[in-house]
Structures are given as structure tokens and as C-alpha cells.
């Protein structure tokens, strides 16, 4: 797969503001001992979830991309390119699941839960009415996500470069928090949203500890495990990145107007990959 010039330029900008992980990818351990989340998430669950499921995604991804144009790109770049406007390339599922799981492990911590503070709490109150209302809506979204998938809190500040996918919330104003449900491996990166928090609702994430009691798993996740400090840090980065992207977009638009070129916009209109709360 040959990358267009504008795609290379877009990704070079992204690399400048994010950590770069290139192939062959390594299985990154959670930022705590595997038994540190007990009694809320058992060592046995992490042994299987991280040590087997997450590991398999990473290993399969390395096999799929070796010797291809994707080899040497960052994990985020591979996710975006292999999404391919909704016509997913073979590497997408493993790349997205590898990214999703690393993001998931870093979303939780021993002694987590409680209530956020600062700008994060202010935006939650503004966009959902209250923290209690946010919790209710997030839990309901996760519980109703049919089959295997993920539920996300994301910062919606769409960039001007939307060549990869349609905006699932085109009528919503930008620069706000949204709750998004995605099936299978899909994540909000493909809509140019900035993920802040995710809960894995695949059965392998909770079945050893909670069997079929997904609602109990969700409650435990939100009340005992979420790292609001991490979510707050991600929000700060997302806002700063949105400001930078907006300025870059304005600069690019000025250049295109000078060259009398029409910008290309692709709409992923053939498939519906998300439900949005």
C-alpha cells in the first residue's frame, strides 16, 4: 500500500506530538503488578486478558505487517491507515486491539475510582449535567453495547483533515466530551476523536471474575478502578493537540487556497460502525 504525499505529511505531524511505537511491536506490561488490582480484578484475569489475548493481538500484528508499507509506522498510524475509510485492511483488527488494550490497562489503577477534579470535572458537569449523570450514561452505554466491543469517553474536537472516516456526530458542536460505543476492535481514533477513557466489554475482560454479570463488572470498573488522573492528563493533551491541529489546518487551508486546489474529503457512508450516546 503506497501512502499519498498528504498522508505522509499528516502522520509526520502526528508523530511529533505522540510517542512512536514501531514494528516489531512488543507487548507492553500494565503499569502495575498483575495482582495489584485485586480484589476488583483478579491476577487470573490479567494472566489471560493481558498475557494471552493482548499478547496474541501484538504477535499477529507483527506477522501481518512485516515487509509491508505498514512496517515501521507507529501503532496509531497503522490503525488509521488500515481502517481504510471503513473498508478495513487485514491488519486493522489486530492493530486496533493492540492499541485498545494498552490504552485500557493505562486507564485503570490500584485504588482507582472516586471522582475527577479540575478541568475534567468541569467539562463533565458542562456536557453531561453532573458527574452522577455521566456515570449513569456511561454505565448504560457499556451495558447495552451488544456483543464484543468497547465503550469510550472521548474529546470531540474534529480536525480539518477528515479523509479517513465520516463524523458520527456531525450536528454536535465540537470541543466537548462524548460517550461512544464501538463494536469489535473499532475505536474513536478513526473519527478524529481523542479517546480519554475506555472499558473493554468483550467477555474475556470480565468473565473469570464476574461470569455473565456485565453490569457488576462495569460498576466495579467505574467505582474502584478508573484512573481519573490519567484521564485528566489525556484531556489536557487532547485540548492542546486540538489547538495545534486547528492552527495547522488553517495554515494548510491558506496554502490550498493560494494554489486553487480543492481538498479531498471521503465519507465512510457505506457502513455504520458505532452507536453514540
Automatic annotation (TrEMBL):
GO terms for molecular function: metal ion binding; superoxide dismutase activity. It is found in: Plastid, Chloroplast. GO terms for cellular component: chloroplast nucleoid. GO terms for biological process: response to light stimulus. Its main location: plastid. The keyword GTP-binding does not apply. Its EC number is 1.15.1.1. Residues 116-166, 171-234 form the Manganese/iron superoxide dismutase C-terminal domain. It holds the Pfam family Sod_Fe_N. Residues 242-277 are annotated as: Disordered. Keywords: Chloroplast, Iron, Metal-binding, Oxidoreductase, Plastid. It catalyses: 2 superoxide + 2 H(+) = H2O2 + O2. Residues 25-108 form the Manganese/iron superoxide dismutase N-terminal domain. Residues 249-277 have a biased composition (Acidic residues). Its cofactor is Fe cation. Belongs to the iron/manganese superoxide dismutase family. This is superoxide dismutase. It comes from Thlaspi arvense (Field penny-cress).
Amino acid at each position: 500500500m503506497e501512502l499519498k504525499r498528504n498522508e505522509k505529511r499528516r502522520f509526520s505531524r502526528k508523530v511529533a506530538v505522540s510517542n512512536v511505537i514501531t514494528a516489531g511491536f512488543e507487548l507492553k506490561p500494565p503499569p502495575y503488578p498483575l495482582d495489584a488490582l485485586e480484589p476488583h480484578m483478579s491476577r487470573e484475569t490479567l494472566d489471560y486478558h493481558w498475557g494471552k489475548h493482548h499478547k496474541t493481538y501484538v504477535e499477529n500484528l507483527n506477522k501481518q505487517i512485516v515487509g509491508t508499507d505498514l512496517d515501521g509506522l507507529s501503532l496509531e498510524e497503522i490503525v488509521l491507515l488500515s481502517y481504510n475509510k471503513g473498508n478495513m485492511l487485514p491488519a486493522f483488527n489486530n492493530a486496533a486491539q493492540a492499541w485498545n488494550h494498552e490504552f485500557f490497562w493505562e486507564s485503570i489503577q490500584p485504588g482507582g475510582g472516586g471522582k475527577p477534579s479540575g478541568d475534567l470535572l468541569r467539562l463533565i458537569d458542562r456536557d453531561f449535567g453532573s458527574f452522577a449523570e455521566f456515570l449513569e450514561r456511561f454505565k448504560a452505554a457499556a451495558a447495552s453495547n451488544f456483543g464484543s466491543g468497547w465503550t469510550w469517553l472521548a474529546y470531540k474536537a474534529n480536525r480539518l483533515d477528515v479523509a479517513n472516516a465520516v463524523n458520527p456526530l456531525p450536528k454536535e458542536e465540537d470541543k466537548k466530551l462524548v460517550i461512544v460505543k464501538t463494536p469489535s476492535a473499532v475505536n474513536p481514533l478513526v473519527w478524529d476523536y481523542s479517546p480519554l477513557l475506555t472499558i473493554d466489554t468483550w467477555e474475556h475482560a470480565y468473565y473469570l471474575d464476574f461470569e455473565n454479570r456485565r453490569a457488576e463488572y462495569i460498576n466495579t470498573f467505574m467505582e474502584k478502578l478508573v484512573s481519573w488522573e490519567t484521564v485528566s492528563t489525556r484531556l489536557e493533551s487532547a485540548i492542546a493537540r486540538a489547538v495545534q491541529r486547528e492552527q495547522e489546518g488553517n495554515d494548510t487551508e491558506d496554502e490550498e487556497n493560494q494554489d486553487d486546489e480543492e481538498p479531498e474529503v471521503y465519507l465512510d457512508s457505506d457502513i455504520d460502525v458505532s452507536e453514540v450516546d
